[in-house]
Structure formats: structure tokens, C-alpha cells
């Protein structure tokens, strides 16, 4: 091959690898469009809180749309709250552990107040009239039925502790341990530690007419120090005999090479609902249990992928086909070097494909894990006994070779990869970790969008929308909001979402919170601001940014989630009204601050300057005297040439809009230091600059703190004749509407 041709091929390959700039997804940002603090959410956006005295740990949340109630499990309590307002009409059940159990727990060396209590971990709807609840019971797991009545108007909420039953295999002993369970029909499927020391982990079926079944005991090939996260029932076909239960957990990986230390992998495990164990082997043990690795990783350019192996929470988003829900999972890293969190989404088709793939098998001199190549017995291990895929009616009818193969080969060789081969949304280098997730599928004017509500370990909720983009054949993730739900920054440990009432419910160690799914008015008062938000819940109705409701009627509602282009949607709307203008004064040689904060934190601020109204505009460039900050411009050592008209503009998503004009007048130092003329008519006209100088003593105070945070207290410029009296008089003059302008101004 000639050298010119080889060079041409190399150049083409380089261009293909780089790809066109327009075809790449924009880089993800860790900055939300809006960041709303706890006081603002409480005062303006409907945040409500509920907490019990001398209780904590609101971990178990059960949403009942029919009754309009939120059932909550906490320390020593069960609570029924109104879905419309969790602060009203609550009903409580006091359910402590018996005194003798608490004393026995204390004698065993446990903390009498922190551990020897009844922490409610499990809460399920059992039938139309009862719930099923389980708690730790001071290291004596206990369960009971809770009567709630059959109708909405039945104000029944009671539990008879005398009819409580043993909770072993349903609830953990230790309140620090996790448990996962699902109630299907009358059967409870649990992933839990079944002993006091927390070493015997099992996947267990209890209640119901069928026999109790569990995983093989003390076999690391089945479960190896697992931490159960969640469990779901998913139908496989129209035949209920094919139904499967899927467990999500993380565990110490058995396939990790020896000598490299312990490594945590995330797993998805499956069992058949009609599994009753084997006849001669695996008696009362699962015969259909299989597990596969659940991968959430960022592909590396050099082949070294970055893995998020610590599974935190799972949400099952139902679709029109109940057999194929979407699985949203929240992960964090286990590395001490790189810390981050990610959300990955999986399809049931990919999950089923992994369980139909090759089994993992150890062979060779080094006992390496390889795909099993020999004959797999029939019926294939993991298949449910039914008429859909075979002639077996019970797992007890399975041949012995099937049972033995299932005992020794529970692990699949191929992992389950996320949709798109990479995380849907991730954050790195941020001061928080994802803890839980809830997802709402929203109908918008240009399609359906999945909105993610992600809880963190600092008491905040992130609102993220996933937008498909044809330009790069992928998804664009928009971080719309960061909401401080809990003022004490307690970690969010559970989330429940009501699409019917458009409310989100969050549980933490200290309280339960309720807040709306949308705050459309917070985006702004103009069509462009509403459009730029790209929130599927919101649309411009011609006068305000309000809740979008799909309707067959033609209405003047403007929404563009996919592109967010105000130039198309808002072209007929009048441009933003007259740009507000503020007068600003500065003393020559001092410093002054030009404040301009856009509503969106993702907007980029541009400054232009005109020396006079007739002069051309020029862009303000930072230098040793001009300092750019998040809140505006800091001008050091003000000169006479700095006087003029400053225009603040915000640019976002390719759209630019003016926010504020600031007219700066520079006062000479000699004029500012001149004594007042004899017989001056009013102090407000001769002494105003003294107050101004006091405000400019520490101009950096205006730049301190995060956006929207409180500003540092202003200090006095020097000892006045009467301490504080002159400043107070100036402030009184200012509140009476004096003629002078403020030091700085914000467009909102």
C-alpha cells in the first residue's frame, strides 16, 4: 500500500473516531438549573414535614392511592398519613418491643436506646382490609397484621400485639442491616439475614399455602455476604406458572481472582414463584435460583472501564406491557480514589438474555471462571415448571441431574449490561452520593419523558429528565432541580411517588417530607424562561409558566422539552419587557460591585459596556481590576473611565436575553471628601456618600457564599462621630424612597 493512501486512511480513521462535534452529546453538568433551599421550599413551594417525638428512621413507606394514605414504619411506631397533606389527620400505632426482649437485648451488649427497639422494616398491603408489618423487635424479629378497614371512609388503624408472630426470615435482627421483600398474593419473598449474628443470609419464602423454601445454607456460590436492596415480581407470560421473582443485591464476588482482596459486585437473582424445592436433593431449597452480575460502568478509552459496583436502590417503572418494565438502578463507587454515583437503566429483554446465556464454571489448573461448554441438562436450570416451556408440573419432578447442576452452577457467565452500554446519568466530584430513586413517566407535547427523582445522603433530591436525541442517537440528561428537602441534611433512605396527586414523599432518619413534583412558577415569568427549563411538567399558557395537562383540545400551550428553543416557541410573544435599569455610584479609587444573578444556574452571563448612550458596546473582559464572580462584576480601584452603562445578559442553550442595565457614575475622590456646604438643605443630599463608603468597605462580601445564599454582614468604614447613628439615618432615608439608587441590583 502506498504511503499517501495509507496516510489518507489514517486521517479518515481519526475523523471517524473523533466524530462530528454536532453529533456528540453535550457534557453532563453537575450544576442544576435551579437550586432551592429548605426555607424557600417551605415558604413558597409546598414542602411539608412530619416527624414523631422520640422516634426516627422512617424507612418503610407504603403508598395507598385508593385510601389516600401513606403508611410509614418507624422506630416503635406505625403511622398513617394523608397523601394530600402529611401534616394533617395522622393516625398512630405505638408498637414497642416487649420489656423482657429489650432487657435481654441489653444483656447481650446492645445499646438499650439505639438498638433495643422495634424498628419497622417491612410494610406491605396484605389484602383489602389489612397490612402486614415486620420489625426488629429488639433483636427478636416480629410481624403482625394491621387492620386498616375496607373503605376510604373507614377510620380504622389498629394492631393487636398479642397476635404478633415470629418474624425470623422476614425482618432482620439488627436495625443496621438491610432487608428486601415483596408480597405476592399471600406469599412473602424476603432477602434477609436469619440469625442474630447476621451471617446466615437467605432468600426465603414464607406465609401462603406453599412450603417455606430458602437458598442453600453456608454456600458462598449462592450468596456471599449479600446486602439485599430490593425485590420485585415480574410475570413472564400469560401463564402465572411462569412468574418469577427478581432479587437485587450486592455481594462479595466469588469470581474475583485470589490475592486481590474483596470486591463487591451487584447481582440480580431470579427464582420461580412456583418453586417448591427438590424431591431428593435441595429439599425445601430453591431449584430455580440463578444470579448474574448487574454492570453499571463508564467505558474507558483504553479499555479500562470505571465501574459503579455499590447498588443503592432500584425502581421498577411499569410500561404498557407488564412483562417488560424498565429497571432503574442507583449505584455508587466502591473506590476510595474515584467517588461518584450513577443511574443505569435495564430492560427485561437484556436480563432474560443473560439468564438464557452460558453458565459460569471453574476449570483448568488455576480454576479460572469460564463459560460452561458441556451439555446442559433438560429442562434447563432456571426454567419454571409449566406447560409453556415443558411438561413438568412441579420442581419435585425435575431429574436429579438438573437439581445437581443447579446446585453447583447458580452463577451466569454473561453480565447484564445497561441500556445504551453506559449510565443514563452520573455525578462525580460532588459532595453527595445517590441513595434512592423514583421515576415518573410524563406525557408532554412532544412525547413521553422519564423524570427521575434521586435522593442523596445530604437530604437533597435531584430532579433529572432524560431526553432522547437523534443527533447522537443517545440520551441527554437534564439536571433541572436540586431541592434541599431536609434542613438537617439527613440522608434520604426511601422515596415514594404519587403520579395521581403529583406528589413526592421522602423518608429520612429524622422525618418524612412531602413536596410537589413540579414548581413551574419558579422558572420565571417569561415564555423564554419557561421554554428553556425543558420541564415536561410545565408549559407556557400565554401569561405564565404553569402545569402542562395533555388534552385533545387545541390550546395555546407552548412546550418544547426535546429542543428547548425559545426562538421557535416564543417568537410571537413580546420580548422581555423593558430591561430594568439601576443607578449605581462609585468613588474614584474605591471598589464597587455590579450584581447580576440569572434565575438559571446553568446560564452564562455576558457583560457589555458603553461609555455613553451613543458609544458602541464592547464586551467586558476580566483583568487585574475586573473580577468575574458568580454574582456579578467586581471593579477594583474604580477609575473615571469606568463610568457608563453596563448591560448584563444571560446565554443558555443558544438563547440570549438581557437581564439588567446598570448606569455607573464615578464620583471624584475630592468631591466625596469635600465637607458639606454651609446651610445645606437636607442631610440626605449631602451625606449619602458616607453610607455608600461604609457599604463599599468590604466589596468582596457580596461575592461570598453560594448563589442565593445570605451575604456577609457589612462592616463600617470607620468610627463615625456617633457610632451607628449616621448609618441608621441613611437606611431610614433609603426606605422612605430617597432619590439615590442602590449599590447593586438583581433582575429578580
TrEMBL record:
Keyword tRNA processing annotated: no
InterPro entries: Ig-like_dom (IPR007110), Ig-like_dom_sf (IPR036179), Ig-like_fold (IPR013783), Ig_sub (IPR003599), Plexin_repeat (IPR002165), PSI (IPR016201), Semap_dom (IPR001627), Semap_dom_sf (IPR036352)
Stated family: Belongs to the semaphorin family.
One annotated Gene Ontology cellular component of this protein: plasma membrane
Domain of life: Eukaryota
Chief localization: membrane
Pfam families in the record: PSI, Sema
Taxonomic lineage from the root: Eukaryota, Metazoa, Chordata, Craniata, Vertebrata
One biological process term in Gene Ontology: semaphorin-plexin signaling pathway
Range of residues in the leader sequence: 1-23
Record has Secreted as a keyword: yes
Keywords (A to Z) from UniProt: Disulfide bond, Glycoprotein, Immunoglobulin domain, Membrane, Secreted, Signal
Disordered: region residues: 701-748
Protein name: Semaphorin-3B
Domain Ig-like: 574-651
Residue intervals of the Sema domain: 33-517
Cell compartments where the protein resides: Membrane; Secreted
SUPFAM superfamilies with a match to the protein in the record: Immunoglobulin (SSF48726), Plexin repeat (SSF103575), Sema domain (SSF101912)
Amino acid at each position: 500500500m502506498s504511503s499517501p493512501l495509507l496516510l489518507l486512511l489514517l486521517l479518515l480513521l481519526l475523523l471517524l473516531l473523533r466524530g462530528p462535534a454536532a453529533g456528540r452529546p453535550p457534557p453532563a453538568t453537575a450544576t442544576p438549573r435551579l437550586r432551592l433551599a429548605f426555607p424557600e421550599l417551605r415558604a413558597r413551594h409546598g414542602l411539608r414535614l412530619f416527624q414523631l417525638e422520640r422516634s426516627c428512621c422512617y424507612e418503610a413507606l407504603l403508598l395507598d392511592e385508593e385510601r389516600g394514605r401513606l403508611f410509614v414504619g418507624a422506630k416503635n411506631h406505625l403511622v398513617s398519613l394523608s397523601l394530600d397533606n402529611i401534616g394533617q389527620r395522622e393516625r398512630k400505632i405505638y408498637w414497642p418491643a416487649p420489656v423482657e426482649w429489650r432487657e435481654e437485648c441489653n444483656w447481650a451488649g446492645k445499646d438499650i436506646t439505639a438498638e433495643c427497639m422495634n424498628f419497622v422494616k417491612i410494610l406491605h398491603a396484605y389484602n383489602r382490609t389489612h397490612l402486614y408489618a415486620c420489625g426488629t423487635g429488639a433483636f427478636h424479629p416480629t410481624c403482625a397484621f394491621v387492620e386498616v378497614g375496607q373503605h376510604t371512609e373507614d377510620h380504622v388503624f389498629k394492631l393487636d400485639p398479642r397476635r404478633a408472630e415470629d418474624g425470623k426470615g422476614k425482618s432482620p435482627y439488627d436495625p443496621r442491616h438491610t432487608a428486601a421483600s415483596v408480597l405476592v398474593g399471600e406469599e412473602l419473598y424476603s432477602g434477609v439475614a436469619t440469625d442474630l449474628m447476621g451471617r446466615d443470609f437467605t432468600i426465603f419464602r414464607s406465609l401462603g399455602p406453599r412450603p417455606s423454601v430458602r437458598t442453600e445454607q453456608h454456600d458462598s456460590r449462592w450468596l456471599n455476604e449479600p446486602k439485599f436492596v430490593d425485590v420485585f415480581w415480574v410475570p413472564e407470560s400469560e401463564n402465572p406458572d411462569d412468574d418469577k421473582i427478581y432479587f437485587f443485591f450486592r455481594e462479595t464476588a466469588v469470581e474475583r481472582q485470589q490475592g486481590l482482596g474483596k470486591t463487591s459486585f451487584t447481582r440480580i437473582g431470579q427464582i420461580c414463584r412456583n418453586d417448591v424445592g427438590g424431591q431428593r436433593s435441595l429439599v425445601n431449597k430453591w431449584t430455580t435460583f440463578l444470579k448474574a452480575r448487574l454492570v453499571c460502568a463508564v467505558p474507558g478509552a483504553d479499555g479500562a472501564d470505571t465501574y459503579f459496583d455499590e447498588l443503592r436502590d432500584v425502581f421498577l417503572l411499569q410500561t404498557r406491557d407488564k412483562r417488560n418494565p424498565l429497571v432503574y438502578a442507583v449505584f455508587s463507587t466502591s473506590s476510595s480514589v474515584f467517588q461518584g454515583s450513577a443511574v443505569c437503566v435495564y430492560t427485561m429483554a437484556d436480563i432474560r438474555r443473560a439468564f438464557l446465556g452460558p453458565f459460569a464454571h471453574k476449570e483448568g489448573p488455576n480454576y479460572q471462571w469460564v463459560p460452561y461448554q458441556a451439555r446442559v441438562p433438560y429442562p434447563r436450570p432456571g426454567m419454571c415448571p409449566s406447560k409453556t416451556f415443558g411438561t413438568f408440573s412441579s420442581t419435585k419432578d425435575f431429574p436429579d441431574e438438573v437439581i445437581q447442576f443447579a446446585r453447583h452452577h447458580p452463577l451466569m457467565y454473561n453480565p447484564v449490561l445497561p441500556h445504551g452500554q453506559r449510565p443514563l446519568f452520573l455525578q462525580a466530584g460532588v459532595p453527595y452520593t445517590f441513595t434512592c430513586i423514583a421515576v415518573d413517566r410524563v406525557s408532554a407535547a412532544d412525547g413521553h419523558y422519564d423524570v427521575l427523582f434521586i435522593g442523596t445522603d445530604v437530604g437533597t433530591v435531584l430532579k433529572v429528565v432524560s431526553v432522547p436525541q437523534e443527533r447522537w442517537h443517545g440520551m441527554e440528561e437534564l439536571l433541572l432541580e436540586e431541592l434541599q428537602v431536609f434542613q438537617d441534611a439527613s440522608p434520604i433512605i426511601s422515596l415514594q411517588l404519587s403520579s395521581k396527586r403529583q406528589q413526592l414523599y421522602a423518608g429520612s432518619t429524622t422525618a418524612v417530607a412531602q413536596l410537589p413534583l413540579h414548581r413551574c412558577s419558579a422558572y420565571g415569568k417569561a415564555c423564554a424562561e419557561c421554554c428553556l427549563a425543558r420541564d415536561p411538567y410545565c408549559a407556557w399558557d400565554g401569561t405564565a409558566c404553569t402545569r402542562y395537562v395533555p388534552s385533545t383540545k387545541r390550546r395555546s400551550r407552548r412546550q418544547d422539552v426535546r429542543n428547548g428553543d425559545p426562538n421557535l416557541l416564543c417568537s410571537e410573544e413580546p420580548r422581555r419587557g423593558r430591561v430594568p435599569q439601576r443607578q449605581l455610584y462609585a468613588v474614584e479609587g474605591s471598589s464597587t460591585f455590579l450584581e447580576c444573578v440569572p434565575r438559571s444556574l446553568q446560564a452564562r452571563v455576558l457583560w457589555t459596556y458603553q461609555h455613553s448612550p451613543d458609544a458602541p458596546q464592547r464586551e467586558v473582559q476580566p483583568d487585574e481590576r475586573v473580577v468575574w464572580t458568580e454574582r456579578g462584576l467586581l471593579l477594583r480601584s474604580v477609575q473615571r473611565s469606568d463610568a457608563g452603562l453596563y448591560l448584563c445578559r444571560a446565554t443558555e442553550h443558544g438563547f440570549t436575553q438581557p437581564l439588567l442595565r446598570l448606569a455607573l457614575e464615578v464620583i471624584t475622590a475630592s468631591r466625596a471628601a469635600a465637607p458639606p456646604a454651609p446651610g445645606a438643605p437636607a442631610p440626605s443630599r449631602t451625606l449619602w456618600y458616607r453610607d455608600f463608603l461604609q457599604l463599599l468597605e468590604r466589596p468582596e462580601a457580596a461575592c461570598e457564599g453560594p448563589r442565593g445564599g445570605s451575604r456577609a454582614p457589612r462592616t463600617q468604614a470607620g468610627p463615625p462621630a456617633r457610632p451607628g447613628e449616621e448609618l441608621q439615618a441613611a437606611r431610614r432615608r433609603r426606605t422612605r424612597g430617597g432619590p439615590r439608587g442602590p449599590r447593586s441590583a438583581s433582575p429578580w
